[in-house]
Recover the amino acids of this structure.
């Protein structure tokens, strides 16, 4: 039993160290919002892990009218960040060498916020973390769930 306590303490200690080494504190004036799920900080691209938002040129249809859902997703992110301090937890790099991270404003996950508002999707191919947020938006017909849309990953394949 003594060894398992030591192992547990070791694992916890290593986890805490990893968290502190991957935690990044970013001032909002250093941020450029590229699109709904990508920001640029001091020239470094940060892609929100576990979610996917519509592309900037992507549109949706609501009551027969085309809506710029990609632009709307970006604007929702701009409005949410505003002049707030953003913190990100680095989760590695993607195939395009972008930093993958979950970012927060006032301790609220931007990814969760976007998915819950209906302008981002849980990117199940990579993570199931935001599925409950997507279920909430879908059930309440929020954002794109109130429109005809194409999932961003399908839209990209066609365009």
């Amino acid at each position: 039993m003594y060894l398992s306590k030591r192992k547990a303490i070791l694992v916890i200690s290593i986890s805490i160290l990893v968290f502190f080494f991957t935690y990044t504190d970013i001032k909002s004036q250093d941020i450029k919002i590229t699109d709904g799920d990508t920001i640029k900080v001091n020239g470094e691209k940060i892609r929100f892990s576990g979610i996917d938002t519509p592309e900037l040129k992507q549109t949706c249809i609501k009551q027969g009218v085309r809506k710029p859902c990609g632009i709307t997703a970006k604007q929702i992110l701009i409005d949410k960040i505003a002049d707030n301090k953003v913190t990100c937890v680095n989760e590695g790099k993607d195939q395009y060498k972008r930093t993958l991270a979950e970012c927060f404003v006032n301790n609220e996950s931007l990814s969760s916020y976007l998915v819950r508002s209906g302008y981002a999707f849980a990117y199940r191919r990579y993570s199931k973390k935001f599925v409950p947020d997507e279920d909430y938006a879908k059930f309440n017909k929020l954002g794109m769930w109130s429109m005809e849309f194409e999932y961003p990953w399908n839209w990209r394949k066609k365009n």
